[in-house]
Specification:
Strand order of the largest sheet: 1-8-5-4-2-3
Distance between the termini: 37 Å
Number of helices: 15
CATH topology of the largest domain: Dehydroquinate synthase-like, alpha domain
CATH superfamily of the largest domain: Dehydroquinate synthase-like - alpha domain
Number of strands: 8
CATH architecture of the largest domain: Up-down Bundle
Largest sheet: 6 strands, parallel
Shape: globular
Radius of gyration: 20 Å
Amino acid sequence: MENFTFLSSTRIIFGRGTELKVGEETAKYGKKVLMVYGGGSIKKTGLYDKIVKSLKDAGLEYIELSGVQPNPRLSLVKEGISVCRENNCDFVLAVGGGSVIDTAKAIGVGVYYDGDVWDFWAGKCEPQKTLPVGVVLTIAAAGSEASKSSVITNEDGSQKVGLNLNILRPVFAIMNPELMSTLPPYQIACGVSDIMAHVMERYFTNVKNVELTDRLCEAVLKTVVHNGPIALKKPDNYDALAEIMWASTLAHNDLLETGRVGDFASHRIEHELSAYNDVAHGAGLAVIFPAWMKYVHKHDIDRFCKFAVRVFDVEYNFDNPEETALEGISRLENFFVNMGLPVRLSQIGITNDKFEYLAKKCRKSPDGTVGNFVKLRENDILEILKLAE
């Protein structure tokens, strides 16, 4: 196990009716709120009215910024920064899922910066200060409600980049699983894929003697595998939605990465897919992750066998361990198919004439590689895309 420092500073308020506490929680940090959300869904479900009433009852003023899209855009971040400055907002409230939360985080750090906020995502400098950000979560997927991550898409050059700093963690996250009951099944399925990817990219590590976090990762994965299909069939099943929503937070608040080194190559590769054609992030991950596993599994057959046996109940083949590992990958892929997700690039409109472009464009570390479990170079990424074709 590696040395580690763990911080999870976000206050979690979980359960039925908790969205009614948003005014009370927000009033602890500010008086004038920028409320960030997506389209009209929160108005159709009645959540918008509940939020507004709670803010008003707490004596708070609010300004609205709507229009957040999946794979959130830099242009809206910049608009939000301007709105905050013009109206002297001292708090940013995200009402939605990962894209809304990531937008709110970017606005928060951008308000105090005189330059182009993209400088942070481009690695030119780091933010030193942020407006406090709070969350009312409506979609379990990205885990952004308690993470140090914010992923933003710069429309100029189709660059989708993540920034990871503790300053980005929200001060609170209100999480009522009931708010997921109106989601389309495909959104739930994409969320499940995203949650699993966050866990698996921590699970596949070269660090030895990490049994506790292995077991924690496996528990989260098995919980999601069990409850995902239930939520698709019965979207009003509170218990299944609650398990998935809490799993999304645990998958990405860094607890599962303590003492180990994660990978995140699949996320880097998928970012290029969704930057290129705006595919849903979870759908892109369902395509890329099994292909990555097929490409790297021989690096550590034992770990892939452990995944197969403990997560998907594959019977261990003592005569042919690789067969066990491959069966685990196959069951993961079949799980995604049964959830209604794509598992081939052709299903999401990406043809092989784009593979070299996507492999070249994939954001790499200074040494020219992506990932840690197996360090991938451009040709490796190309081969993974071919496996996903």
